[in-house]
């Protein structure tokens, strides 16, 4: 039995400390502190009592702990995790034996060696054991007591509750009002409003008033009150803002991103500029995991198409890629403008086109301009109008539901140009 793989856990190979029992070697370690931890920052013990019991645990049950030797400074996370201030140092626990998985342990943390904080520190646990200290995946445990000598006691800690064999943990500053947003269900490409989240208040005094707003310019908003936990359903992919207020009037605000289930990241990067004779390679597969069965379809200005994962661009234009997950049919896309045109160019294709079928309007300009594109019938009636600005390359989708002859009128800062299209 390998209790601690030094190669696999090399990052956490500092101050390795163990609890456990091995009858063959006469080991029955119920309390432990690493000899290198000369200041006794962290002490480990089995159960919640100081009493040593011969048969407290059975043979071949072990807990091992190690840390990454980072500093004991506390810093805020980044992005949405900036709402939590956590120690730089992180620990790893490995658990072996069925009894060890169901037996509680105790941690004793010496606050005197850590940044001073009047509210104390949460023990925060990443149950995946993958060093994921994102705010919304952590388990938060307050100390059960603090001794007169400023030692925080965390009782009833069970390890490896998910059967992964390991957990990561650290310590974060307790806040007067704090909430995690737990994902229950993700929206899917076939059921885009099937997202479900739970607002989990970690610290505060209820009841709580809340406001949940989607940050996409719409009026999607949920208001209400709850005591400790509240679920919100029928959510779509996107960014949200949560505002929470407790009974004392304390306010907590945070942001949250709800992704799409099995989302395939597609990112062609920022717009680029091309010179005559230059070639630019665009690769849509850079962020796509090799295990995924996907297909690619590219379209670009003036009729360009391709089905490879990467293309070589030799002329200016707007380029768009569609990445299809062949397992479920979900399609993810991104586009990029390759600038550098030395002429104004407008194209409409395919032409002619079936009604209710999308056709493209490509516009290539020498420099960024405002555009207005109008779809008119032969009598001059406007059926559609599209405006956009700030770009030199445009690739627009247009669809007509009635057969006939139409005119595409493109208005730019430099003038007006028209193209005919037949819809049958």
Summarize the structure.
With 424 residues, the protein is an all-beta fold. The chain has one helix spanning 98-102, and strands at residues 14-22, 27-29, 31-32, 42-46, 61-67, 74-76, 85-87, 91-96, 105-110, 121-126, 139-141, 145-146, 151-157, 166-173, 178-185, 195-203, 208-214, 221-226, 229-235, 238-245, 251-258, 272-273, 280-283, 294-300, 305-306, 310-313, 317-325, 331-339, 345-349, 359-377, 382-398, 404-412, 415-423.
Q: What labels describe this entry?
A:
424 residues, 52% strand, five-stranded antiparallel β-sheet, Immunoglobulin-like, 4 domains, seven-stranded antiparallel β-sheet, 33 strands, mainly beta, elongated, single chain
Describe what you observe in this structure.
With 424 residues, the chain is mostly beta strands. The protein folds into 4 domains: 10-173, no CATH class; 179-258, Immunoglobulin-like (Sandwich), CATH 2.60.40.10; 272-339, Immunoglobulin-like (Sandwich); 345-423, Immunoglobulin-like. Helix content is 1%, strand content 52%. It contains 1 helix and 33 strands. The strands form 8 sheets. The chain has a 7-stranded antiparallel β-sheet. The protein has a 5-stranded antiparallel β-sheet with strand order 3-4-9-13-12, with no helix packed on it. The longest helix has 5 residues, at 98-102. The radius of gyration is 30 Å and the shape is elongated. The mean pLDDT is 92.
């Amino acid at each position: 039995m390998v209790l601690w793989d030094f190669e696999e856990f090399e990052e956490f190979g500092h101050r390795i400390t163990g609890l456990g029992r091995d009858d063959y070697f006469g080991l029955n370690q119920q309390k432990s502190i690493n000899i290198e931890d000369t200041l006794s920052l962290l002490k480990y013990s089995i159960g919640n009592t100081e009493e040593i019991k011969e048969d407290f645990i059975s043979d071949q049950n072990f807990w091992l702990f190690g840390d990454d030797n980072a500093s004991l400074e506390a810093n805020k996370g980044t992005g949405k995790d900036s709402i939590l201030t956590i120690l730089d140092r992180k620990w790893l626990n490995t658990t072996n034996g069925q009894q060890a998985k169901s037996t509680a342990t105790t941690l004793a943390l010496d606050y005197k060696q850590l940044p001073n904080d009047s509210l104390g520190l949460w023990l925060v646990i990443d149950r995946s054991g993958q060093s994921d200290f994102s705010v919304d995946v952590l388990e938060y445990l307050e100390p059960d007591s603090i001794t007169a000598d400023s030692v925080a006691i965390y009782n009833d800690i069970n390890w490896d509750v998910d059967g992964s064999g390991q957990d990561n943990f650290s310590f974060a500053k307790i806040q007067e009002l704090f909430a995690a947003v737990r994902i229950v269900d993700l929206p899917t490409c076939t059921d885009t409003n099937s997202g479900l989240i739970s607002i989990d208040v970690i610290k505060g005094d209820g009841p709580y008033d809340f406001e949940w707003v989607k940050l996409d310019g719409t009026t999607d908003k949920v208001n209400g009150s709850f005591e400790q936990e509240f679920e919100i359903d029928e959510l779509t992919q996107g960014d949200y803002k949560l505002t929470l207020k407790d009974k004392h009037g304390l306010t907590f605000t945070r942001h949250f991103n709800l992704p799409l289930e099995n989302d395939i990241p597609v990112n062609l990067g920022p717009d680029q500029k091309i010179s005559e004779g230059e070639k630019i390679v665009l690769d849509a597969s850079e962020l796509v995991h090799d295990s995924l069965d996907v297909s690619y379809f590219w379209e670009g200005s003036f009729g360009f198409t391709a089905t490879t994962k990467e293309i070589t661009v030799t002329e200016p234009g707007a380029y768009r890629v569609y990445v299809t997950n062949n397992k479920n049919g979900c399609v993810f896309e991104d586009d990029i403008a390759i600038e550098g045109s030395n002429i104004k160019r407008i194209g409409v294709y395919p032409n002619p086109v079936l009604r209710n079928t999308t056709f493209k309007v490509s516009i290539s300009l020498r420099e960024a301009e405002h555009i207005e594109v109008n779809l008119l019938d032969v009598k001059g009636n406007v059926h559609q109008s599209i405006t956009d600005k700030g770009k030199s390359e445009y690739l627009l989708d247009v669809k007509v539901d009635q057969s006939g002859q139409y005119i595409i009128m493109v208005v730019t800062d430099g003038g007006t140009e028209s193209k005919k299209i037949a819809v049958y």
